[in-house]
Amino acid sequence: MSVSSSRTRIPVTVISGFLGAGKTTLVNHLLSRSSAGEIGVVVNEFGEVGIDGQLIVAEEQALVEINNGCVCCTVRADLVASIRQLLAQPENKRAPIKRLIVETSGLADPAPVLQTFLVDPDLRESVDLESVVTVVDALHFPQQIDDEIAREQVAFADAIVINKIDLVDEQQRVALEKTVRSLNPTAALLHAVRSQLPSDALLGTRRFSLPTLLDIEPDLLDENATHDHEHDTSIQSCSLVECGELDPTRFNRWANQLVQQQGARLMRMKGVLNFREEPRQFHFHSVHMLLEGRPGRAWKKDETRNNRFVFIGRDLDFPQLRESFVACFNA
Question: What confidence tens digit (pLDDT) does each residue in 266-321 have?
Fold first, then answer.
């Protein structure tokens, strides 16, 4: 039985993009431009510890996290279950959800995700795939284009947000757009700084085209077809959950030294941190050698102040990374 047999199909926007492109920042920006609770969010992460779910500003009842797997592979059933869960919640307990956003992991192939929306009977009846948005990191995409997943994320998009456009010059921008257009000649191209752009540039416009998608992936609607999708097994993640207060000076020194030494291999770091004598969470991000951090929301009185941190990269010494991270705690 469909969870929405008595109501109009809800539009869905799938947001993809490679590691660190700015997907979560974009989701938060779109949520900040909407009424509380009217957008339901499903977020998928590559790793055992969820960070993005803590960074997203959605109402608690309108957010579902899928961790420890890629939404395009082993946890596709969880994607269906998550959407059903959001749509089945009694509306007297929350504002009615008017649209859904699905944020995939940075290593997700869009094709199996889209196939899920197109072939699952319940989802076909309850939701309407409105658009596929891919966020491109203007600074790092030239290094990422050799990765098949990064190329497919661009190829399957209906709209492409070239983010961090302020970090490249005009010559780099033109070359980047030429590269993007070689992978996808028809998608709408949008520029952004810190994933900021008008919400109506992405939401409310139905860009998804099944015929265009089938030109790229002809057997997409065949559930029995074998899709050539394998993750780069050299990319691994390490997740930490540690109690205690971090010394901000030690942490900043450690993070800067780490990316100087291992920035090429260390593709992504992100964390929600508990700094000494700080009533707010500290949100930390890095993409290769580019670091960013800022205070987040205040810790709740009854909340355990754990430090949650994720490393993603190639050929990393995870025991050594954990040891050096723990050394940043107060003695």
Answer: 888 888 999 998 999 999 988 888 888 889 889 988 889 999 998 988 888 899 99
Q: Which domains does the chain have, with CATH numbers?
A: 10-216 (3.40.50.300), 235-326 (3.30.1220.10)
> Tens digits of per-residue pLDDT, 235-257?
788 888 999 999 999 999 999 99
Please give the Cα distance from 130 to 168 (Å, whole number).
31
Cα–Cα distance measured from residue 104 to residue 256, given in angstroms and rounded to the nearest whole number: 28
Enter the pTM of the model. 0.78
CB 208 within 8 A of CB 130: yes
**Interval 162-208: pLDDT, tens:** 999 999 999 999 999 999 999 999 999 999 999 999 999 999 988 98
